[in-house]
Amino acid sequence: MKIRPLTPDLLAKAGSLVHHAFAPSRYELRLFDRLHEKNRPLHEWVCLHRQAVIACICFSRAFHGKKVCGLHLALLAVQPRQQGQGIGSELLRFALRQAAIATQPIYVLGDPAYFHKFGFVPCAAPICPLVRGNKHFLGLRNSIIEPITIGYEPEFYR
Predict the structure, then answer these.
(1) 31, 37, 62, 129 — which has fewest CB within 10 A?
(2) Residue 53 CB-density burial (10 A; 0-12 exposed, 13-18 middle, 19+ buried)
């Protein structure tokens, strides 16, 4: 198993993985495709096993107004038949050690029990516009205490 940056030659395989990992939902695949179509600045890695993409992680920018104030863990996907083997956890740990990620505040909408293992804690602030009451909105290295609304790339809203 190898972890590598997502490159253009692996984009279609990563998209297929996202489709299978989140089916029947189509939101995540549309988000993944639109972020790439618009060439948004992303930090992405894939996990390869015998030339197959078996996991993918993607971070996008978080905003306070128009200013970048951290990153969103936009998606973490693992091939369904390989879930539960620690592949997603290994990929997330790897990503959190990378220079582009290691010092940034990171936000995620996700299962608190899962993400707590990596240091994520519930956020009272900033406010996530995608869920009521910040339910399942977690942060790592979050220093925002005022009730601002955190921004996402426009593709999250479509």
Answers:
(1) 37
(2) buried
Biggest distance spanned by C-alpha atoms of the chain: 47
**71 neighbors 95 (Cβ within 8 angstroms):** no
pLDDT digits (tens, 9 = 90+) for 2-17: 999 999 999 999 999 9
Which fold would CATH assign to domain 2-157? Aminopeptidase (3.40.630)
C-alpha dihedral, 135 to 141 to 145 to 147, nearest 10°: -40
State the Rg of the chain over Cα. 15
pTM for this one?
0.95
CA distances from 81 to 53, 59, 84, 153 (A): 13, 24, 9, 31
**pLDDT at residue 158 tops 80:** no
- Cα–Cα distance measured from residue 5 to residue 91, given in angstroms and rounded to the nearest whole number: 11
